Amino acid sequence: MTDTGREVADRMAEAALTWLDSLDDDQRTVAAGPPPGTGEAERTRWFYTPTDHGGLTFHRQRPAQHRLVLRLVASGLSEAGYTTVATLLGLENVLDLVEGFSVNWGRERTRDPGMYYLRVFGEPGGPQPWGWRFGGHHVSLNYLVVDGRVAATTPCFLGADPAASPLLGGATLRPLGAAEDLARDLVRSLSPELAARAVLLDRAPDDIVTGNGPRIDDRVILRSELWRPGPHTPDRAGNPATGLHGADREAVALTPSPKGVPGAELDATQRELLRALLGTYLDRVPRGVSPLPRYDETAALDAVHLAWAGSTTAGEPHYYRLQGPRLLVEWTNVQRGGNHAHAVWRDPETDFGGDVLAAHHASYHQR
């Protein structure tokens, strides 16, 4: 039996309250944020770099509290989603090895699995909207609960550096590998005519086009904006996060009318690939709140556009996105020689639940 949005919200509220009740006054001052609808500039400010995401870190908590943090995180994810997120946290130790345990940005440890932050906004389980955010390097989870139901699960960002790591016995650890392979299989299956429309540029942007903006628009996100200003923030030039300028930037720029090839022009096998690819993003959250069943409908899948940039050869830098009504997915694997993946799922209409929150407040104040 599939959980409903209300059942998922109830589990979130119970886990959030248990965690908050475990905190002392100093911890709670950092962990608790204003209710949704007030202080929105902070609630909707999100990052995916190893910067201050806002909230209480693992370092400022006892081990028993770490467990409560992860219990809340698990309440907002599917089992596969939780396993992936837990793997990404541990991947910081692998990245430290890749970099020779030598990167130093002026804090006690740079690649740090303890530097993940949790903040709860408002009162969990109460009559008013509330939400929570968990994030750190390559993870940003954002949730809003309104009228006892999960109203928003985006932005939802996962990344992996390295994207592929060796395991014993010749196996390879690729936490986000399916999201890469399915997309490549799909674009490589296109006819020459469709491929010419799907591939927007022969080089890939350095990062996702929308960056970490609180809203999805056509503004150019600078590299410096990917970090919260602070004493341990590395020096970042004011160049576009994508590294693209001029005609190249315009070629991959997000537009209200999606670029690329729509699902309506794909054959049956390609449509199955497209829906499976959507699942690698939308199945991150519990089934009761995932929009994936929407794409069982022909019209919904027809409207999803695939666009690509860069090489279609495995192991080489590339970018893709899926865009449709209430859907934006972006992927890039460019840095570290094509071994550093970013994968974000967003809802252009209601990231952070803004429209649902506005409707709730309008209804509440009319009573």
Task: Give structural attributes.
two-stranded antiparallel ribbon, 367 residues, alpha+beta
State the order of secondary-structure elements, H for helix, E for strand: HHEHEHHEEEEEEEHHEHEHHEEEHEH
- Arithmetic mean pLDDT: 94
Please state roughly what percent of the residues sit in beta strands, choosing from under 5%, 5-15%, 15-25%, 25-35%, 35-45% or over 45%. Answer: 15-25%
User: Helix coverage percent of residues?
Assistant: 25-40%
Report the major sheet: 13 strands, mixed
The whole-angstrom Rg is 20 Å
**Class per helix and strand makeup:** alpha+beta
Shape: globular
**Number of DSSP E strands:** 15
* Ends distance: 36 Å
Specify the number of helices.
Answer: 12
| Low-confidence spans | none
Describe the structure in brief.
With 367 residues, this protein is of the alpha+beta class. The protein has helices spanning 5-21, 25-31, 40-43, 63-75, 79-98, 177-188, 192-198, 246-252, 268-282, 298-302, 335-338, 354-365, and strands spanning 32-33, 56-57, 117-121, 130-136, 139-146, 149-152, 156-160, 165-166, 172-173, 199-201, 261-262, 305-310, 318-324, 327-333, 341-346. The strands form two sheets. Strands 1, 2, 3, 4, 5, 6, 7, 10, 11, 12, 13, 14 and 15 form a 13-stranded mixed beta sheet that branches. A two-stranded antiparallel ribbon has the order 8-9.
Your description of this structure?
There is one protein chain. The protein is α+β, with helices and mostly antiparallel strands and 367 residues long. The protein has twelve helices and 15 strands. It has helices spanning 5-21, 25-31, 40-43, 63-75, 79-98, 177-188, 192-198, 246-252, 268-282, 298-302, 335-338, 354-365, and strands spanning 32-33, 56-57, 117-121, 130-136, 139-146, 149-152, 156-160, 165-166, 172-173, 199-201, 261-262, 305-310, 318-324, 327-333, 341-346. The strands form two sheets. Strands 1, 2, 3, 4, 5, 6, 7, 10, 11, 12, 13, 14 and 15 form a 13-stranded mixed β-sheet that branches. Strands 8-9 form a two-stranded antiparallel ribbon. A hairpin with a 5-residue loop joins β8 (165-166) and β9 (172-173). α6 runs antiparallel to α9 (268-282).
